[in-house]
Amino acid sequence: MSTITFTDEDLLLGSKPHNRLLFVAGYVREQKVNRILINGGSAVNILPLRILKELEIPIDELSNSRLMIQCFNQGGQRVVGIIRMQLTMQDMVSSALFHVIDAKTSYNMLLGRPWLHENAVVPSTWHQCFKYCRNGIVKKMLGDNKPFIEAEPPFADAKYYIEDANKGKKILPPEEPKSCNNQNTRKNDSSTLEPESLKSLILPLTQINMKQPSNPPLKGFVPSTQEEEGGHEALAIDEKGFDPKAFKLLIKAGYDPKKTQP
Q1: Which of 10, 22, 26, 50 could be bridged to 127 by S-S, CB 3.0 to 4.6 A?
Q2: Can you tell me the distance from the alpha carbon of 157 to that of 165, in angstroms, rounded to the nearest whole number?
Q3: Which stretches does UniProt call biased (Polar residues) (predicted)?
Q4: 33, 51 contact by CB (below 8 A)
Q5: How far apart are the first and last CA of the chain?
Q6: Are 115 and 94 in contact (CB under 8 A)?
Q7: Strands 129-134, 31-38: pairing kind
């Protein structure tokens, strides 16, 4: 008689602590079914009604059953019917009697103690695999490492798989806008220009000639240049030649007509 044992080499996730259930994948009527839950705490094998429809199995194939399945919330779930189906997982071919229920579950199939004992299967949620013996040879079936996808409705059990998958993803830094890169490139290019190339950018200065006004100046108005060059000599004009308004402005500015110019 063969002995079934589990060692550290059987650990699917290594020594990392986890709280995962044991899900496997298989084929029923040549259609792949994932999230097959291996649960030694269940007294029956369970098949949700939605999976029965996805497999295109008519309700007429179900046998009658009056079984009431008790759930964790102490509520009862009436069985729609029972059906026996062949299940293939790698090179393991077996059959299981399923109780069909109309309920929303995180698993697509549940294989309980009836299937485990009929096939002498020993599961290990810690090692994430199960082992069985065929013709004196111990064989191993690994658990499904990615039974859930993010697009599916959220389940409490899914977080133990999706979170671990996201931890391995590398978060890339956001890309800089192209406009900033272009500006940096222009700055770098301008700093590398040599002085010889800058000479071509220098333009000659154009001399600006100041034109004297063509209109004659107002009576009594003395330009600043004339005031600097001639001092107060330009103000020594006979009082009768001044405009009255201009004369008053000169008086306010401090001009004294009584003083004689040297």
Answers
A1: 10
A2: 14
A3: 179-194
A4: yes
A5: 143
A6: yes
A7: unpaired
Question: Half-sphere exposure (CA, 13 Å, Cβ side) for 240?
Answer: 0
pLDDT surpasses 70 at 114: yes
Reported as a single tens digit per residue, the pLDDT across 167-202 is 555 545 555 555 545 444 444 554 454 556 555 666
Q: 238 is written with which tokens?
A: 């006979």
54 phi, psi to nearest 5 deg: -65, -35
Stated pTM of the model: 0.58
Residue 144: other Cβ atoms inside 10 A: 18
Tokens of 109: 């199939």
* Structure tokens that stand for 189 in this block: 């290019």
Q: How far apart are CA 230 and CA 224, in angstroms?
A: 10
Burial class, 99, CB count within 10 angstroms (exposed 0-12 / middle 13-18 / buried 19+): buried
Classified as helix, coil or strand, 31 is strand
Indicate if the pLDDT at residue 234 is higher than 50: no
Tokens of residue 39, six digits: 């649960």
How far apart CA 144 and CA 156 sit, in angstroms, is: 17
Q: Where do the domains of the chain lie, and which CATH numbers do they carry?
A: 8-167 (2.40.70.10), 220-253 (no CATH)
Q: Are strands 45-48 and 31-38 parallel, antiparallel or unpaired?
A: unpaired
